[in-house]
Each structure stands twice: as C-alpha cells, then as structure tokens.
Amino acid sequence: MRATEPAGNRSSLAHQVRYALRHPERVPAHARRALRDALLRLRYRDHIAYYRAVMASDTARSAEAAVGHNPSREAWTRIGRMQFDYLVGHGLQPHHRMLDIGCGNLRAGRLFIDYLDTGHYYGIDISPHILLAAQDTLVAEKLQPKLPYLALADDLTLAFLPDAHFDVVHAHSVFSHSPLHVIEECFAHVGRILAPGGFFDFTFDRTEGVEHQVLHEDFYYRTRTLTELAAKHGLDARFMDDWEQLPHRQSKMRVTTAADRARTVGS
C-alpha cells in the first residue's frame, strides 16, 4: 500500500462529525482555526493577503508550526531532509540554480543552500514574518557565506526574475494552500524562468473524488485537473509515483515545458 492515499471530502459534514468523534482532543484547535478563518475572510478578500495573515498568526506561535501542522523540531528536520534527498536523487547538482517557492524558514532550504554553489539558491515567500525566521536559520546554520537570495513575493507572476535562469523550481506545500487561480498564475509564468532542461516540482493535496477546500487554508485537487491546467500553458505535468512511497501526506508532480520534454534535468 502506498504511503500517500487520496483524500476524501474533508469539507463534508459527515467527515467532520466522524473526525470529531475519533479525535475529540483536536476539536478546540479546529474551532480556533475556523474562528480565525472567519475573521480573516472578513478583513482580506485577496487570498495572498489572507494567507499572509494566517502565516503571521502561525509564525507568532512557532516558525516550525507555520510550515507544517506538526510543530516539532524533529518533524521539521525530517521533512526538510526528505525534500532534499528526493531532489538530489532526481538530478539536482551543485551548479544548478534553484528557485524555492514558499521557502518558509528554510526547512529544506538550509540543506539546498549548503549543497548548491554560492549564490545559486533563491527563496521567495509571501510572509515577511517567516522570512525573518529564515534569516535566523541562516545564522544558526552559519550559511551566510553561501549568499542565498531571499525575497518577499506578492504573487506568483515571478516578474522580477530573469528568463531561462532556473534549472530547478520547487514548491513544497504551497499549492495545498492555494486556490486554482493562484496555481494557474504560477503555471502561466514558470515556463519563462525555467532554463533549458529544467523542471518544476510541486506538492499538492490529492483527492480522486470531489475537489474541495477546508476553510480557506487547505485545498484538494484531482491530478487530472492540474495536468490539464499545466497543458493549457504549454507545460507537461507528470505524477511522481516514487514520491508516493515516502511518508508524506501530499502528492508530487513534475512540470517541464512541452518543448523541452526530451531533455529534463532529472530524467
């Protein structure tokens, strides 16, 4: 049996009742999330602004919790290592230039920065609070000499980045928190910044049933939806079956430009 299984409809009342009965100790935390969601939706209509506020709230509690529901340092370290090992196993080389979308507090980024040549890591995030935490990680890991580039982003048009520059683009646990129009914005622009032979890896919460969301924080998509959306923008997207064997709840896809399918970096 695969480690990752497609989710059922977690927004349904039946699922919520069953979950509450199985995990009554988690009900207060979910109720707090629901209240926060309602208040932030009244204040922010734009999803990026809304989720930036979510990140500010989570980071105030714990930088580790802000990049994953499990706030333990052990889980933070393990999941970062999993991302790193997977990309290195799929062709990431020290001379490659990498863009890390939603870099957070460098859970995996600290490993990529150490591995890549100086100045070859670019991390962006929508949260100024988490980017400050990323700076703390750089200091703690003594990675300042590697000159990583960290930038605040307000959208996924990637307009401030150069054409054909990045060999690897990476977005872990970003699309799982993104409505479809945000994902499409990324698909519409990521091909421009990919170098010849480059690829874009992203994770997402997968369902084979009804696509749905839980609050405005968690979004569940069918693989076919994302494959077809990528094709609309001249991209080939394929499901990464080997990622499914790893102990992670999200699934992974890889995108390349349609004209570049024969010479992917990680082929």
From TrEMBL:
InterPro entries: CFA/CMAS, Methyltransf_12, SAM-dependent_MTases_sf. It holds the Pfam family Methyltransf_12. The keyword S-adenosyl-L-methionine applies. Residues 99-200 form the Methyltransferase type domain. One of its GO terms (biological process) is methylation. Its EC number is 2.1.-.-. Keywords: Lipid metabolism, Methyltransferase, S-adenosyl-L-methionine, Transferase. GO terms for molecular function: methyltransferase activity. Belongs to the CFA/CMAS family. This is Class I SAM-dependent methyltransferase. It comes from Streptomyces olindensis.
